[in-house]
Specification:
By secondary structure, the chain is of the alpha+beta class. The protein has 4 helices and 5 strands. Strand 4 and strand 5 form a beta hairpin.
Amino acid sequence: MKKASRLKKYVELFKRNISSYLAPGVYVKTIIYPVEGEGAVFEFVFNKEKLGTEEISKLRKSIGNVLSEIPQRLISGNIEGVKFGGTSLYLEGNRILVIKGEDAQDQWSGNAVIEDVRRVVSSSEGGRS
């Protein structure tokens, strides 16, 4: 997914929906990793330094390329051929990686964003819904 307007809209909705779960004074820095193929990767970093910024990284060939270039412990080795479907979440420390594996409209809808946030919150609460 390389359509900047769709990527930015996802970030806007994600941040709006997760904000009610954040403590006062917690800000979200976002890095968007667009790819030539299907999907995209979003990195949401929580901080207290009023860094609620958003940046779009350079276009990469695939989600595998993104994951091989950014710090993460989700998947290692040669991940060039790994295919992602749906939405994968990776929570580590003060950040969340959201891996959107498809460009299907239903994966990027407002309801999909709400479901992604619900999954993040549920995971961080130990699986309680």
